[in-house]
Write a structure and sequence with these properties.
- The chain has 12 helices and 11 strands.
- α1 packs parallel to α2 and α8 packs across α12.
- About 12% of the residues have low confidence.
- The protein has 406 residues and is an alpha/beta fold.
- It starts with a helix and ends with a helix.
- The chain has a 6-stranded mixed sheet, sandwiched between helices.
- It folds into 2 domains: 155 residues, no CATH class; 224 residues, Rossmann fold (3-Layer(aba) Sandwich).
């Protein structure tokens, strides 16, 4: 008999008190013996087969409230029966229903006997015949005429009775006492090194381009050689100094804002929002300046932008290059800025306010009075980050083009 049928039989007969745990097995009176970890034929809605240990503990404690039952099972480190499975399982074990879709017939792995396999001996007096077979019968010549029957021995079942599963699918996936933090840190460091290398390549490209254009924006910096000169926009690349002439985006240095110097690169370049505290826990160092480009643009020529979070260190010529700011929503963010008020700021600089879509209206009450664009992202749906990043780029590029022609 399989473990599930045996447990159902004893439950219906009201003999659960005879189901006793001895070491790593359950003994059903003197009738059956099964390993505690033996899989039963009842499959959870989650996909796994319940073990005998789980079902025995449940049927003996089904009268408890589910929360109390879960807590007790957790304290005893016994896997619990899920809430959706409780009622149909109980009705089946009590005999109220004859079957259920969750039941799968299993081939019994042990004999319905509590004979200890390790103590099995042919001369055991409890066996039907002594080791020499049934009592001798003499024929007319006085010779033994008995026919000794063959005793089939199921060695496979005897071996399985001694087996104990060490791991199942659930325990393997849980990976207890292990985490992948080290792998995550190593991959993050490699990604940061890749980004630094790309940033340096972009800066080198800007230097080469600025030298090629020359201080007046013409090819080679000399005669136009028959080419018409074009108007020079304010946001042009000039000189040969690295970063000179590159537009600047300011972000808050406060950690309570969504976009900071830590995560602005992933958001604007890859369209993925990574919380600042996550970046800090992964050991990311705080950069003084970050260079970003619109990676997912179809344009062949993509402008580069510097991102900074320390306005107090900027010079007057740096302020002329500021084109955008991610606002914190606090007036003190603009303290000591070279502008009269926030009205003048957002006439000359485009502002963005990042918020979670389910935040309260009060969180954006102040910025709604300013000339800034409110960008909403989801707390959990990361696939929506790309659309928010594209909205920032579209607004920013439109603003830069309008500013270049004024």
């Amino acid at each position: 008999m399989d473990p599930l049928s045996a447990l159902r039989d004893f439950t219906i007969r009201g003999e659960l008190d005879k189901v006793v745990r001895v070491g790593d097995e359950f003994r059903f009176g003197s009738d059956y013996s099964f390993p505690c970890s033996a899989s039963t034929g009842y499959r959870s809605k989650q996909g796994n087969l319940y073990t005998l240990e789980t079902l025995v503990y449940y049927i003996k404690n089904h009268h408890l409230k589910h929360i109390e039952y879960l807590q007790n099972a957790r304290n005893l480190k016994i896997p619990s029966v899920t809430l959706p499975d409780r009622k149909p399982l109980l009705e089946y074990l009590q005999g109220k229903i004859a079957s259920h879709d969750a039941i799968e017939l299993l081939i019994p792995t042990v004999h319905s006997s509590v004979v200890d396999v390790e103590e099995y001996r042919p001369e055991d007096p409890s066996l039907p015949f002594p080791k020499d077979g049934p009592p001798a019968e003499k024929d007319e010549n006085g010779e033994d005429s008995r026919i000794l029957p063959e005793r089939p021995v199921d060695y496979v079942s005897m071996i399985k009775a001694l087996e104990k599963p060490l791991k199942d699918r659930e325990s393997l996936l849980e990976c207890r006492h292990r985490d992948f933090y080290g792998v995550l840190v190593a991959s993050t460091r490699r990604e940061e090194e890749r980004q630094r290398a790309e940033s340096q390549q972009r800066k080198d490209g800007l230097v080469a381009k600025s030298r090629l254009l020359g201080p007046d924006g013409g090819v080679g910096g000399g005669d136009d050689a028959g080419f018409e000169s074009t108007p020079k926009p304010k946001m042009h690349l000039k000189g040969s100094k690295i970063g000179e002439g590159v537009p600047i985006i300011l972000v808050p240095s406060a950690s309570q804002t969504l976009i900071t110097i830590y995560n602005v690169k992933e958001f604007l370049e890859d369209g993925v929002f990574v919380p600042t505290d996550v970046k800090m826990k992964m050991g990311a160092s705080k950069p003084d300046c970050v260079t970003v480009q619109k990676k997912f643009s179809r344009d062949r020529v993509v402008a580069a932008y510097e991102v900074r979070d320390k306005p107090s260190t900027m010079k007057s010529e740096d302020w002329e290059r500021v084109v955008a700011v991610f606002v914190l929503g606090k007036e003190w963010q603009f303290k000591d800025w070279p502008f009269k008020d926030h009205v003048e700021i957002f006439n000359k600089i485009i502002g963005f306010y990042m918020r979670f879509e389910d935040d309260s209206v009060e969180s954006a009450k102040t910025v709604k009075q300013w000339n800034v664009k409110i960008i909403s992202i989801s707390k959990n749906k990361r696939h929506q980050d790309r659309a928010a990043a594209l909205e920032v780029w579209d607004r920013l590029e439109e603003f830069v083009r309008s500013r270049s022609h004024t």
